[in-house]
Amino acid sequence: MTRATGFLPMPSILHDIADTALTLAAGFKVTLKNLFRPTVTEDYPSEPPRFEQRFRGLHILQRDESGLEKCVACFLCAAACPSNCIYIEAAENTSENRISAGERYAAVYNIDYNRCIFCGYCVEACPTDAITHGHGFELATYNVTELIYRKEQLLASPASPAQF
Amino acid sequence: MGDTVTTPSGARTLLLNMGPQHPSTHGVLRLVLELDGETVVRATPDIGYLHTGIEKSMEDKTYHQAITLTDRIDYLCPMTNNLCFVLAAEKLLGIEPPPRAQFLRVALNELTRIQSHLVWLGTHAIDIGAMSVFLYCFREREQILNIFEMAAGQRMMTTYFRVGGLSMEPPLGFVERIRKFLSCFPDRIDEYEELLTRNRIWMARTKGVGFLSAEDALDFGVSGPSLRASGVDWDLRRDHPYSSYEKFSFNVPVSTEGDVYARYILRVAEMRESIKIVQQALDGLPEGPIKATAPGVVLPDREKMKTEMEALIYHFKIITEGYRVPPGEVYQAVESPRGEMGYYMVSDGTSHPYRVKVRSPSFANLQALPALAEGRLVADLIACIGSIDIVLGEIDR
To answer: What total of structural domains would you count in chain B?
Structure first.
């Protein structure tokens, strides 16, 4: 609406110029103010990204206080999973070979990260708090078969029982 | 790329594809433009590039599992989609979530509206050429997404609402975190307005551009801010209240101008109203449970599940089999940041929905685009696309 079409009366042009200059100055004032505000950009990967406590990242299979695996192979996580990405094979614990505190343990526990949508349903379903979301997220790979994580990759190390 | 066609009148026009890979189409939208010089003679939207089959996939999931799919319909308002789905299921089941859950749902939905409008404002401004607004809007949006991450665990695919309430109690300091954001946010809106509202370039690009009359808007089925900018006073939050919206007092901004500028002014005004609603929700936040008492449908508390046999059995049953929903049909609509988002749900009595049809606002709003843009310059078309705030994932589903 400000396109110059023909001749405008002089005071109107002056008013236009003054108004344009004023609004531009108001805009530049805002950008100048923002120049002196603290930087909010995270400098990933030079510094670690900040996550909230509840962030749903790579899964961790937890161990109990005595170092045994918490997972008792009840298959609830696999049933809850909307994208069918959890594969479990159960086996019986024996007195010589005790892996978990329950009757059974997961001999095979795979999560297919090609399919996982990090919805947290497995964690919500787990009755023994065996599976939790950690804060890991760097999944990228050139080979999709590497995205099927095995139990060994998911399991918390025996030394520190609770991990995030 | 281009092809000349001769119109019946004998004028030679150019056929041009805008998109599907064009940054200003806000997703994967292809517009087939018939151009006479720089004037748009005809604009035909071509959709379907983002079809994901979400509606069909829902039939294969239990009601509990299908909530995860609703996040992915519209990446700018996951909470709104969660809410609409769970409200529809709750209607069929006859469950009323406790007041605390309802208030938190309202607060989170209004934050979703603010962050969706922020993305809209930023991308709309950058389409038209204002770079700094984009950066400032995304800075504030990040704060809201961090609030979502604090409560739900994810910034965008929240999956926080459940049938009967919320998935978990928000963490300590949650309310204070939102209050902190709300205390500085009105000043930030003032800053965006200082950059744009009276800026001569912005006004020249948006005022009088893309006019949509109230009659046309209703005929096309346009809803949300685009409808209200054309002078129709219609907001589902006020006119068909859901999730205890009737307990909140807020204004519904309406404008009669019907152009791109009016839609901008209106959405900014809506952000200010949303702040008021969030504040009311936090001030009046009731104490109490966040899940309804509906054994067999709502997952029992974790403490109970670990100590009581009955709760454990329910926990196993709900997760492995889901819950049976009484047969029936229901339509539930909510006011999403883009307009009327509706879920039409048919249950055949099993634990999986028989059919879920999503009435997405952008689909109807996009129909109005040719009417907005035809007869104007290509540059105005960009402003028009931005002003109706479409999300292609939601159009194609």
So the answer is: 2
Pairwise CA distance, residues B179 & A7, whole Å: 53
- Nearest residue in B to A17, CA atom: B200
ipTM above 0.85, yes or no: no
- Could you say which residues from 60 to 119 on chain A have a Cβ atom under 8 Å away from some Cβ of chain B? 76, 79-80, 82, 117-119
B267-311 residue pLDDT tens: 999 999 999 999 999 999 998 898 988 888 888 888 888 888 888
Tokens at A107, concatenated: 């001999």
Taking the C-alpha atoms of residue B290 and residue A137, their distance in angstroms, rounded to an integer, is 30
CB burial of residue B133 (10 Å; 0-12, 13-18, 19+) = buried
Record: contact A119-B157, CB cut-off 8 A: yes
Structural domains in chain A plus CATH codes: 59-154 (3.30.70.3270)
Chain B, 188 to 217: residues with Cβ < 8 Å from chain A are: 191, 194-195, 198-200, 203-204, 207-208
Residues B36 and B180 in one domain: no
In angstroms, rounded to a whole number, what is the distance separating the alpha carbons of residues B127 and B27?
13
User: What is the per-residue pLDDT across B338-380, written as a single tens digit (0 to 9) for each?
Assistant: 999 999 999 998 999 999 999 989 999 998 989 888 888 888 8
Do residues B323 and B356 share a domain?
yes
CB-CB contact of B189 with B137 (8 Å): no
Could you write out the DSSP letters of every residue in B167-223?
SSPPPTTHHHHHHHHHHHHHHHHHHHHHHHTT-HHHHHHHTTSS---HHHHHHHT--
The pTM (predicted TM-score) of the whole model is 0.88
Closest Cβ opposite residue A1 in set B136, B142, B203? B203
- CA dist B302 and B319 (Å) reads 14
CA B14 to chain centre: 35
Q: Please judge whether B198 and A26 are an interchain contact, meaning their C-beta atoms are less than 8 angstroms apart.
A: yes
